[in-house]
Each structure stands twice: as C-alpha cells, then as structure tokens.
Amino acid sequence: MTPRFATILAVTAIALGLQAPGAQAQAPAGDTFDAVAATAVRVRRLEDVVWSLTATCDRGNDVQQRQCRLVRDHRAKVLEVATLLVDGDSEALELGTWSPQKKSMQVALTSCIRCAGIELDGRTWYLIGSGATARFDGGKLRSAVLDDQTRMFPDADTAATWSKIVRTAHVQYLIKVLPVAKRRWLVAGKDGLAFEIVGYRVSAPCDGAVIVAKPPSAKAEPDKERCSGSIIDGGAPDGVDALTAQMATVAMKPVVDAANACFKRNGISGRAKLELVIAGDGSVIEYKQTGDLVGTPTAQCIDTAMRDVTFPRSKKPRQKLGFPIILK
Fold this sequence. Notes:
Radius of gyration: 24 Å
Low-confidence stretches: 1-15, 17-29, 229-233
Helix content: 25-40%
Number of helices: 8
Largest sheet: 8 strands, mixed
Distance between the termini: 72 Å
C-alpha cells in the first residue's frame, strides 16, 4: 500500500467517525446500553454506511472507479468489525389505541431503522434489523418486532398526552453489519439492507425518560429539538388541581402488586420508600428507591414496575410524592 493511499484510507475512516487503519476494534463491554454505546462507533449519517455497502463505483474513468472501489471496500471492512450506534426513525415506535376497559395501550418497537428509506444515487434503500423478512403493507415497511409492552394510563387524556410526546421519541440502535450474503434483500421491487441489532433504546425527547431499552439503560439526555407539544415543564390547564392520596394509591397499585408478587416468590420482607417527582402531564420524571429492599430481587421488581407508572394530569408542574411499600 502506498503512503498516499494509506492516507486516503485514514481520512475516509475519520470522515465516517470510525477507526483509522491499524486500530483494533473494541468489543462491546458491560451489561447496560450505556456501557455498550460507550464503546460503539457513533454514526451521524447513515447515508455513509449505505454508500460503503452498496456503491457500484461505475462512474468516471478507470482510475476514478478503481479509487472508488478501494475506498468503498476499506470503509466496508471497517464497518464490518465495529458495533455502530445509530439513530432510528421515531416511527419505529408504534403506539396502539387506549382501551377504556383495560386502561392501557400497546406500545411496540420494530426493527425499522429507516422506515422511509435512504435515497442514494437515485436508488432508495430501506434499513431494518434482521430476524424477520421485510414486507410492505399498504406501502408501509414492516419488520421484526423487538419489544411489545402494555402501558397503563388512568384516562384517555393522559394516554393522548403521552402519545403526543413520544411520537418524536429518540430511537437508537446498536447494530452490526451482517455478512455480504445476508445483508441485502429485495422485496416487491424495493431494495434493502439488514443489520444485526444488538441493543436498542427509546427515550422520551423532553426529559430523557427511557420508554424501552435492551440492555437496560439509564435515563438518556433530553433532546430538545425533538421535544414537541410537551407539558412536562408546565402544568396541565385541564388537569386536577393537585394529586391526592387516593390518586397516588390507584396509580401505584401495579407497583404494589408487583412487589407483593415478588415477595411471595422470593420471601424477602422489608420496607421500601419510593421518592417520586411527578410532572404536570402525569409522568414520573424523578424516581429513587430507599429502604430495606435495595439490592434485592424485590427491589428490582419494584423498579421495573415503576417504568410504566403514570399519574393523572395536574395543574401543578411538579409534585413530590413519598410512597411506602411494606412487605411482611
């Protein structure tokens, strides 16, 4: 390899936000989304990844085509050994309708990394995660479902407000490039690329609250550019004057039920104190558990159940709440 071409390769790797030639790719570490993301390569432009994996390099003269292929192939090799952190489309988070009977709605995350596709050199490429064959339903790309959960809401207004906020949710994927034989697909005349999804996180744009994540994740940084129509920073004019003890009891019932179920299963008794800060839209924006159960499986059950808790909307922009759970 000539010094000049080695320099070209180094520059292209830096332009992609990747390691220069000669550097060793780091394997994902840790058991949280944050730990794996810290060792991953942050990709700002997925167009660059698509080019590296699909460019035909058939334009220009022989020298230009040869240089194009060398750069393309090098970029592809760098990508193939890396874990990539990429932004997905908010549309990948699919929201069901609120059920007045169950007081809940379904929330699903799909592996649709680029639902509308990426246009490159006059050709549109659709990006999905592997695991299920891509299909188009009414012109909309359908891919594998990564997570499907039920979220509880006390009323239709609370569900509608939450839905409005998370329609611009920040969707992130940790992905790996698949082998050549498995990465490309063609369905109904549409071209696509498939990637191995090794992790994902969806967070509310205004406060960074985690909606779903695998591996588990700490609260994300708020994304004010995506934050739209939120009432997190203010009270809800049509809400109750203030949350009452009865409202708190109803909202926290799923958490108490989860704690009791874990107590029956694990037999760990004790007192937990949950300290909450509740926004005007009913979302829990701060949460801390103290007491005897911290570090036990029962505490983990409580923490997991708290992710789905919402309260009635309130005219007060912030309310603090202490909620005890006693297991004996």
